[in-house]
Amino acid sequence: MSSKDETPGTPENPLREELPEEVAAKAPENAAEPRPPQAEPEPSGPAAPTGRQRLVMGLWPPRVSRAQLIVALLLFGLGFGLAVQVASNSDDDGALRGARQEDLVRILDELDDRTQRLEEEKQGLEDQRTELENSSDQAEEARKQTVEKEKQLGILAGTVAAQGPGITLTIDDGKGTVEADMLLDAVQELRAAGAEAIQVNGVRIVAGTYLTDESGGVAVDGNKISSPYRFKVIGKPQDLEPALNIPGGVVQTLEKEQATVTVERSDKIVVDALRPAKRPDYARSSSQ
C-alpha cells in the first residue's frame, strides 16, 4: 500500500494537521480532565506594633483625671502670679538702674534719715517710761505727759495750730492736667518722709483726708481748691525736700504733666488751718 492510502491523523503520519471537526471533538475530553489542586496562601497575622507606636498609643489620647486638672490650674495660677510679680519688680528696679549716682546717694541718705528718726522716736518713748518709773511723784509726771501727748495728738488730728521748720511746696497747674491722685501721692510721700502737719490752700490734711477731682480743680474733704496748690508742711526739711525729688517721684511726675513745681525750705512754717474737734457719740475714755 502506498503513502496515499494512509489514514490521516494516524500515528504513522504525525505531521498531518488536524481538521477543525477533530479539534472540536477532542475539546470535551480535555475539559473534563481534573486540574491538580493549588496550594492557597496562608493568611498572615497582624504585625506587632513598634516601640514608637506603643509610645504614641500610651500618650494619646491623654487620660487626665479631675485631680490632675485642678493641680494644673493651680500651678498655672501660681506661675502667672510669679510672672506678674517679677515684671513689677523689674519695672521698679529699672527706675533705680536709670538713676544717676547722686540720686542713688540721696535715696540712701533719705532711708538713713528715716531709720534715725524712728530710732529717736523709740528712744523718746523709752525715756518717758523711765521717767515714769523713777519719778517720786508718778501721778504728776503722768499728768504732764498726758497734757503733752494731748497736744501732739491735737496737732496730728488738726485741732491745734502748729509751727516749726519745714517746706512750702507750690504746684502751678497752668494746663489743668494735675489730678487728685497726683496731689494724694504728694501727701503720702510727705507723710512717709516724716511730715507732722500739712495744709493745702487753707485746708488741714489729717489721717482721714480724701481728695477728689472737680471741674477746674480738686476737692479736699469736700472743699474745692484750685491752682496754684500750695502745701505748707512742718517736718525736717532735709528729709522732706529729697523725698519729693527722687527719680520718678512727685516732682518728676508733675513736671511730665507740664506743671511748675517749686520747693522752698524754711525755719518757720505756720500751719493754722484747724479741724473742729468732734466728740464721739459712744466711745468714752476707759479711765473715767
How much is the average pLDDT?
A: 79
* Low-confidence segments: 1-7
Q: CA-to-CA gap between the ends?
A: 172 Å
Helix content percent band:
40-55%
Largest sheet: 5 strands, antiparallel
In N-to-C order, the SSE pattern is HHHHHEHEEEEEEHHE
Strand order of the largest sheet: 3-2-7-1-8
User: How many β-strand stretches?
Assistant: 8
- Class based on secondary structure composition and strand pairing: alpha+beta
Broad shape: elongated
Q: Indicate the radius of gyration in whole angstroms.
A: 51 Å
Beta fraction: 15-25%
Number of helices: 8
Plain-language structure description:
The chain is of the alpha+beta class. 47% of the residues lie in helices and 16% in strands. It has helices at 20-32, 51-59, 66-97, 101-134, 138-157, 180-192, 237-244, 250-256, and strands at 162-172, 197-200, 203-205, 211-214, 217-220, 223-225, 229-234, 260-271. The strands form two sheets. The chain has a five-stranded antiparallel β-sheet with strand order 3-2-7-1-8. Strands 4-5-6 form a three-stranded antiparallel β-sheet, with helices on one face. The protein is elongated. The model is unreliable at 1-7 (pLDDT under 50).
